[in-house]
Amino acid sequence: MGWMIDEMGKVSAIAQKLRSPITxxxxxxxxxxxxxxxxxxxxxxxxxxVGILKMGWKKLCLYNKAxxxxxxxxxxxxxxxxxxxxRQHKGxxxxxxxxxxxxxxxCAKNLAIEKPTKNLLQFMWKHFQLSKIVNQGNYFIIYEDFxxxxxxxxxxxxxxxxxxxxxxxxxxxxxxxxxxxxxxxVGATVQENTECSQLNYSPGINFVENQFKEVxxxxxxxxxxNPVKQDQTFYQKYSIQSMLNDNSM
Length: 249
Prior knowledge:
Acyl_CoA_acyltransferase; acyltransferase; GNAT_ATAT; globular; Aminopeptidase
């Protein structure tokens, strides 16, 4: 599992023209970040990795143009996002982001994005109609929509008093301990599932070139595009059943 994370981190860095990867198994172990991996099955027992999404909570000093000052608050941050080029522009990235938002009970406007590429900004506009950027001067950007509602204004103001508040406008946010318990529960459920426990990774000599050759992007669509959530205990396998429907493209 660690090797897969490392390799996907490398190709993500290449796609973003970074000097070095910002996602690896070691980095994941030494942080409280969460990695979502999207997989496809080429057989009933083998799978390939289609994309990754790395997320994590950070305390950021956010500038609100409407009120003209900065306050510290906890924000859920998008740190790395990559879909293999053979699967881009086919709905995979949108599905992976949607899965993360549903998993965390967040809306897209609640996120901060670290060093976004032009392609990622275009993606956020196309799929979430987010375009009004507030550059924070700390490698992160947020959108003006972040401050749209009263809940976020209260969260923004309360953070000045040291309160760690969720910026979610959809449902209440899980705390870190609750999130860890949630992951362990899901991991235990998967281990009890004999079908999940028999899944094997299908490696190739060249990870980037070979892992996608034998996979039909839309074969067994109800089983494919399964996001796999990894946190600091990444060596456990979390396979989440896809809720993809025929119109999610």
